[in-house]
Amino acid sequence: MSGVPSTAQQAAQTISQAVSRQDGAGLAAALRLDLGNTALIAQLNSSPPLEQICGRALVEPWDELLLEQLHYIKAAAAGEHEAAYSHCERAAACFQAAFEKESDWPVPALHSLCLNLRRAAAAADAALVAKGERAARQQEAARTMQKFFQVCVTDRAPLPVSKKWGSVAVEKLAAGQGGGAVRAEAGARVGALVVINALFHVYFAINNLRLCQNLIRAALDGQTVEGRHFAKAEVVTYKYFTGRLALLNSDFGDLNAFEEQLATHQQRFIRHGSYLQEEVSRKCLGGVSEVSRHGSYLLVERSKLIVYRNFFRRVALLHPDKSTKLDIKRFQACLKATNTEMEVDEIECILANLIYCGYIKGYISHAHGKLVVSKGAPFPPLRELGLTSAV
Prior knowledge:
This is PCI domain-containing protein. This protein is mostly helical and 391 residues long.
């Protein structure tokens, strides 16, 4: 794969060669412009004749695409985020015009375009909010990326050259590793995974999760991403967002499958039976809004009841006479032993929620301060509730 161009002339030449050779990887590299490209930014700040540079090396709409990309990187480097987004959006429109007429070879460049557009929209929205104006650029970016998505999933070309494949075998095709065999695989609708992941990023950022479900249904059409030749990074991103959606919707069946796959492919570093050291846990304090935005706080809240269920089950197992009538004050004493102070009423409230959710079979005798549990399976296995037991 070609390196990232350090001058406008190199970018124009790289795109020209990529178009003539139908080299999607080379095109993606040429469009991967970022603020770390100091040599290119220095040249852009010297006001070179960009229109001439682009026009001499490229034909329409590739010349305008590069021109807008160069204006985008220059504006972004100068902190002019609203102007940068406008240029980035126009570059995306130019790419769409070319993408609709080509076969699937420009697909690797989708990632670069979507990433640039998403970052530019987020920066523009932050600038608008700082001025007290309504943030709407990410919504506009989502509409633009939806057009990319529609181009992919509605392509009627034969499968070997279909845009439906999106990111399928991008890495293999770039390295020349038998992309033809991969393309012959059935189920091409999952091919727009690059655009799907980019839209996931935006929809979560603007809190429009309803559209995520619509996107999954339209893209997968009853199929899955397992067993297909996607780049691992794309699959991990897709699983991350679908896992968050399952958590938000309390769809613990899908969430359980996601966690099992994660546990299978990742090493575990969690130590059971020991507390985190204070210097480690101190780093996790504060930043509530950031934790909430990433969904971590919701994960903790959803996990609380399961933790309480497991704790109360352990206490019940320690009961000397194995009675079905458990003293709530015993729960209170055990909680206090873990440095958790709770009133009896608060414990009863937690128990009521556990009973309602099916984690405990029984009822609360408030007058006697007892939890009366069923003789048979008072704490149903979490697997029966669609969860993985932690005990």
